[in-house]
Amino acid sequence: MKRNVILSILILVSAIAAAGGYWFGTRRAHAPAAPQTTPAISEKSAAESTTTSGRKVLYWHDPMVPGQKFDKPGKSPFMNMELVPVYADEAAGVADDGKVTISARTAQNLGIRIAEVTETLMPMGFTATGAVSVDERSLSAVQTRVNGYIEKLYVRAQYDTVTRGQALVEIYSPEWLAAQEEYLAVKRSTQPGVESLAQAARTRLALLGISETQIQRIEQNGKAEPRVTLHAPDAGVVWEINVRDGMAVSSGMPLFRLASLGTVWVNAEVPETEAALVRPGAPVTARAAALPDALYKGTVATLLPDVNAATRTIKARIVLANPGGRLKPGMFVSVAFSGDAKPMLTVPAEAVISTGKRSVVIVAEDGGKFRPTDVDTGRDSGGMTEIRKGLIAGQKVVASGQFLIDSESSLKTTLSRLEAETPKAAQHTSSGKINRIDAKDGTLELSHGPIPAMKWPSMTMMFRADKAVLENAKPGDEIEFDMLAEPGKDGDYVITRIAPRKPVAAK
After folding, report:
1. Is residue 304 part of a domain?
2. Number of domains in the chain
3. Which pLDDT tens digit goes with each residue over 386-410?
4. Cα-flanking dihedrals φ and ψ of residue 216, to 5°?
5. Span 431-473, pLDDT tens digits
6. Would you say the C-alpha torsion 277, 281, 283, 284 has a positive or negative sign?
7. Domain that holds residue 375
8. From start to end of 349-458, where are the E strands?
9. Which among 205, 348, 374, 430 is least buried, having the fewest CB atoms inside 10 angstroms?
10. Neighbouring residues of 439: CB distance < 8 A, sequence distance ≥ 6
11. Is 304 found in the same domain as 272?
C-alpha cells in the first residue's frame, strides 16, 4: 500500500513538471526577442554619445579642417590624425564668449606654444636707412670778377678731389692787366701824397679778385702779370664745372662749385609712426655697408616737412662728421636713433594676429581653454610687441598655432549664433506602409495613420524624399517617418527620416 502511494506521488510530480516545461516553453516562444546589443556609436547619433567621464559628444572634427563634422571617432581623411571630440559643454561656452577647449595632447600635436604677458623695458630707439649727400651749407662758388678768357684749366672733371689753395684755372684779362700797371706806376711815383694813391690802387687789385700772394709777387718783381690764377678756397670735390679751355668768361660768372666732405648730410627715411621720437639735436650713430668697421656720429638737424605717400616715411636730415671724407655722396647708411628704455607690457610679436581692422591674441586659460581677445598694439622692438590695452601682466597667450584656434573659435561662434537665430522647420512623426517607391523621381506612395498635429486622418498619399532617405526603404515596409510641416515648392510634403516600425511588445 505504501509503495503504491509513493509511486502515485512520483507520477503526479512528473506530470506537473512536464506541464510546467510545456507552459514555459510556449511563453518563451511567444515572448518578443531581446534586442541585440551593439556599440553605442552605431545606433546613437554623435549628439547622444558620451565618454567614460559622462560628457556628451556633439561630433568629432579635424582641428585643421574645423568646418567638416564626423559622427564617430577615427582617423581624419585630411591630415591623417585622430579626430577630436567636441563636447556639448564646450559648445555652450563658445556661443557666449568664443572659447575653445583643446586637450593637452592635441595642443602638442598642433604645435601650440604658450608665452607669458610680461612688463619689459623696451628701448625707444630705432634704426632707419638713409642716403649720404653733400652738406649743402659747405658748397662754395669760384667765379671771376672781370671779363676775360680761359688760358689754362687745371681741374677738368666733375667730382675731382681738390685741396685747399689748389690752382683751378688761369685767366687772361685786360682789366686785371691795366689795374696792375696802374698800381705799379703809382708805386714808382715820387710826388707828395702818392702813398694813399698806391694803397687805393692795391685795394682795387684785391677787389678785382687778385690774391694777396699774387699782389706780393707783383710788388717784388715790379712787373704786371697778364694772367691770374684762381685757387680752391677749401678742400672738397668739384660739384660743378662750367668752363673749358679758351672760353670767354664774364664778370660774376660761376666757374666752379666746390663741396666740402668734412661733414655730410644723411636723409634718413623715418617711419611715420616713429616720427614723434625724433627731435632736432638728438644724437645718432651711423654705419655704412662699405665701411663696416667705422662708426660715424652726428645729430639730427631737422625733420623735413614732407611725407612720402608711398612708403609713409618722413625724411630726417642728419649731419654726420666725415673725417677723411670716406663717406661719399650716394652711399647708403643705417642710422640708429637713440632713446631711453621704458617699461611696457609686451608679448611676442608672433602672438598678435593682425586682420587689418583689429589685432587679436589668443589667451590661454585654465583647463585647456583658449579665448580670442582684441588688443591695442604699440611699438615693435626685438621681436616683442607693445600691448597698450586688452591684457594684463601674467596672462598666458598663444605664440604659435593661434591661427587654427582663432579660426575654430570664429567658426563655432558664428554657427552657434546662426543656430540660435534661425528657427528650425517644424516636423511631425507618424507611421505607415510603403506602397511603391520611385527613387529616380524621389517620390513614394505611403499609407499612413492619422496625424493629429496636421488634423489628417488615415489615408494614402504621395511624398517626396531625398535619395539618402530612400536608400534602405522598399515597398511593403512598415515604417516610422518624420515629415516637414510645410510642403515644398512643388506642393508635395517632404519626408526627412524613415526607420523600421518598432514591434509592439506583447502584453
Report:
1. yes
2. 5
3. 898 888 888 999 888 666 665 655 5
4. -65, -40
5. 999 999 988 888 999 999 888 887 788 888 899 988 888 888 8
6. positive
7. 114-120+345-399
8. 353-354, 359-364, 369-381, 384-389, 396-400, 427-438, 443-448
9. 374
10. 467, 470
11. yes
